[in-house]
């Protein structure tokens, strides 16, 4: 069966899906997006992702172009048509199509696209078993990264720099040398029996996986702290992690030349991963 995507009200074959050359998402990165994980044919933390999408839209003075009910219907169709049992749904809303002009157009309907993608569970398990390597780079992003906007050039460059150093993620350093987050994930260290992640502010994306993990840590009575940390703290850590909708809780075994613990996922990794998994809310499609 061929891959089907949703583009502005139509279901189209992936190969023939097109957006207008004057779409403001294309010209200005003027829009927002969400990535929903699909786990065992169900959507993970759907309501939380939708709430964040509404917040991102509102921060940019945009609205949902369809009702919440029809968006759920279209997401569900994309997951089913494409036989996605484990993978992701990418949903993007731009301010729409208008003759190029920086200021907002009048009466333009936002564009909505939905793409589904299968992801191999084996690949994820293999990465979890080995752990990932991280390199650091300056956080060159704009000052409202709490909005999940299409403005992703700095994270693109950061991730590319990481890949060129045989790393799978890049941790971004603010002007004071503290780690804000990963280029597409939140960052965590485990030090002196406490999991630490940076507090929510305009300098990080309030990760849905981050919040779900925190709920799980509370349930399991695992100590955690929301605090800034730098590379000296990383050196003193016995374990480290990234979290994101698609990576879940992923162990980090090296940051630049700093080996974390024994250089393999540590003894608490399964515990933290389970804390996340048992706190997820799964929505049937
Ligand atoms: N921070 C950034 C910069 C991200 O791009 C992502 C991935 N969307 C995250 C954190 C993790 O967010 P979530 O857990 O909601 O996927």
Description of the structure:
With 285 residues, the protein is α+β, with helices and mostly antiparallel strands. It is 29% helix and 29% strand. It has helices at residues 24-28, 46-59, 68-81, 121-130, 153-164, 208-219, 231-235, 269-279, and strands spanning 4-7, 10-13, 31-39, 42-44, 87-94, 111-118, 132-138, 169-173, 179-182, 186-191, 194-197, 224-226, 239-244, 248-255, 258-259, 282-283. The strands form two sheets. Strands 7, 8, 9, 10, 11, 12, 13, 14 and 15 form a nine-stranded mixed β-sheet that branches. The protein has a seven-stranded antiparallel β-sheet with strand order 2-1-6-5-3-4-16. Helix 6 (208-219) crosses helix 8. The protein is globular. The two termini are 20 Å apart. 4'-deoxy-4'-aminopyridoxal-5'-phosphate binds next to helix 6 and strand 13.
Short descriptors:
seven-stranded antiparallel beta sheet, 8 helices, single chain, alpha+beta
Cα end-to-end separation: 20 Å
As residue ranges, the low-confidence spans are: none
Q: What is the number of helical segments per DSSP (H or I, 4+ residues)?
A: 8
Helix content: 25-40%
General shape? globular
- Main β-sheet, in a few words? 9 strands, mixed
Which class of secondary structure composition applies to the elements?
A: alpha+beta
What percent of residues are in strands?
Answer: 25-35%
The number of strands is 16
Calculate the mean pLDDT score and round it.
97
Rg, please?
19 Å
Q: Give the ordered list of helices and strands.
A: EEHEEHHEEHEHEEEEHEHEEEHE
Question: Which ligands are bound?
Answer: 4'-deoxy-4'-aminopyridoxal-5'-phosphate
């Amino acid at each position: 069966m061929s891959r089907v995507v949703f583009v502005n009200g139509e279901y189209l074959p992936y190969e023939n899906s097109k957006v207008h050359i004057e779409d403001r998402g294309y010209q200005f990165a003027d829009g927002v997006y969400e990535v929903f994980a699909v786990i065992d044919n169900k959507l993970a933390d759907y309501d939380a992702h939708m709430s964040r999408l509404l917040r991102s839209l509102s921060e940019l003075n945009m609205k949902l172009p369809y009702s919440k009910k029809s968006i759920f219907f279209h997401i569900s169709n994309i997951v089913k048509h494409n036989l996605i049992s484990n993978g992701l749904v990418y949903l993007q809303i731009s301010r729409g199509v208008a003759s190029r002009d920086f200021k907002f157009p009048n009466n333009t309907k936002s564009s909505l696209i939905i793409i589904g993608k299968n992801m191999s569970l084996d690949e994820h398990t293999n990465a979890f078993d080995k752990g990932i390597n991280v390199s650091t780079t300056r956080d060159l992003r704009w000052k409202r990264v709490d909005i999940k906007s299409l403005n992703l050039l700095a994270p693109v460059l950061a991730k590319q720099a990481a890949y060129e150093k045989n790393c799978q993620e890049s941790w971004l350093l603010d002007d004071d040398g503290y780690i804000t987050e990963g280029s597409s994930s939140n960052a965590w260290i485990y030090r002196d029996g406490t999991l630490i992640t940076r507090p929510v502010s305009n300098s990080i994306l309030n990760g849905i996986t981050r919040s779900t993990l925190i709920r799980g840590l509370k349930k399991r009575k695992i100590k955690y702290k929301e605090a800034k940390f730098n590379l000296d703290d990383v050196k003193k850590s016995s374990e480290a992690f990234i979290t994101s909708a698609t990576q879940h809780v992923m162990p980090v075994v090296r940051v630049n030349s700093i080996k974390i613990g024994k250089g393999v996922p540590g003894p608490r990794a399964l515990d933290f991963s389970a804390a996340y998994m048992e706190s997820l809310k799964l929505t049937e499609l």
